[in-house]
Amino acid sequence: MVQTEIAAPPVVAVPRYASLFIEGLREANVSLVTFLPESLLKGVYRQLPHEEGIRVVRVSNEAEMPGIIAGAYLGGKRGLMMMENSGLRQACEPIARFMYTHHMPLVMAMAFRGDFGEPNWWGHAHGETMEPILNALRIRTHFVSTLDDIKPSIKKAFVHADAGQSAVALVFRGECVEAAAPHVQD
Amino acid sequence: MFRIDVAKALATLVTTDDLFISSIGAIKDDWWNSRPGPVDNTFHPSILGSVSDMALGLAIALPHRRVVALETDGSVLMNAGAMCTLGHERQPNLTVIVLDNGVYESIGAPPTLTSFNTDLAKMADAAGCPDTATAADVEAFTRTADRMLNDGRLGYLVAKIQPGTYPWPREKRKSTDGIEDKYRFMRHVEKLEGIRIHWGAPPQI
């Protein structure tokens, strides 16, 4: 049997950071989001498919996303690429190609896996390598740490990417991602 | 069937209302000299693996307009998971045409995996693409592409071609780079759609 319909939204409260994130997308006229979900921004991934007027494209590899966003841009549609920061490593080649050989705007939103206090051993490399890679690619990066910075950051990221015809990274951390597991809160 | 035959056959089926995302390599000059109208209706991403992705994004942005992806076997194989995204999205105004010569021709023609056991049309079918086919001659290609372009469903057509590059003289070869291509394609879409994608200046305060 082919499943074609999205199930009704789960009966769970939408976290404040996720509501602000989606409001920010609407205020920035973003109508397409392509993502490979992870756990730190799961409130956004869970809610987005139920948001009218925002097309969601699910991918299986982060390297698919820069092309999708570039195509949408040349059709007049603003799109956002969402992932864990490990996806940056996976998508380096298409990011660099579109940014340098075509001067294509690209806004990426990524969760900061490997931030200070990371409880998962496998996540530490994500944090250690993220900033050096962003710096090596010369991608303008903004860390979003507080709830009141979510909406202005999303809006500015699109203005910056469009004006500069370049890539911009928003890195979500602190109160802008899921709360840490109980065992690391103390 | 050669690459140039596919380009010429496709050109008889499309119009200046359509948009194209094409692989780089030899198809670039074949399509540039065959495309409908002397207009900037084709964008060539400089990377293997992103042609279908980009065509999908464009087709989503412009659902009322036909979009054609001119893929190659090397490009599809580099990012084969994109077939699953295509098969899930099933974007109805998108047709993907894969020029499958079984080799990496521009670097001396070592084989790609489609020279052995890999069947791209079967992969696309298993990934959920609703209309897939393989064409081995111009007549089959033309008939199948015509149907896929007009049936309002995502089409995935693998054109089995022989290696061989048409010897375009230098003045006939596409001479623009990736940045100029972007602006020319963007301005073409703006004219077609009556929209503005990139202003180049902030709004006056």
Give a quick set of tags describing it:
A: 186 residues; alpha/beta; 6 strands; 38% helix; globular; B: alpha/beta; 6-stranded parallel beta sheet; 8 helices
Topology:
The complex is a heterodimer of chains A (186) and B (205).
Chain A: H1 16-27, E1 30-35, H2 42-47, E2 55-58, H3 65-74, E3 78-84, H4 86-90, H5 92-101, E4 106-111, H6 124-136, E5 140-144, H7 150-164, E6 167-172
Helix pairs in contact in A: 1-7
Chain B: H1 3-11, E1 19-22, H2 27-32, E2 42-43, H3 51-61, E3 67-72, H4 73-78, H5 82-89, E4 94-100, H6 120-126, E5 131-135, H7 138-150, E6 155-160, H8 178-193
Parallel strand pairs in B: 1-2, 1-3, 3-4, 4-6, 5-6
Helix pairs in contact in B: 1-7, 5-6
Percent helix of chain A, as a range, is: 25-40%
Low-confidence stretches of chain B: none
How much of the sequence lies in strands of chain B comes to 5-15%
How many beta-strand elements of chain A?
6
Strands ordered across the widest β-sheet of chain A: 2-1-3-4-6-5
Sheet with most strands of chain A:
6 strands, parallel
Shape of chain B, please? globular
Structural class of chain B: alpha/beta
Element order, helices and strands of chain B? HEHEHEHHEHEHEH
The count of strands of chain B amounts to 6
Question: Can you put this structure into words, describing what you see?
Answer:
The complex is a heterodimer of chains A (186) and B (205). In chain A, 38% of the residues lie in helices and 18% in strands. Chain A has a 6-stranded parallel sheet, with helices on both faces. Chain A is globular, with a radius of gyration of 16 Å. By secondary structure, chain B is of the alpha/beta class. Chain B is built from 8 helices and 6 strands. In chain B, helix 1 crosses helix 7 and helix 5 crosses helix 6. Chain B is globular, with a radius of gyration of 17 Å. The mean pLDDT of chain B is 96. At the A-B interface, strand 2, helix 3 and helix 5 of A face helix 3, helix 5 and helix 8 of B.
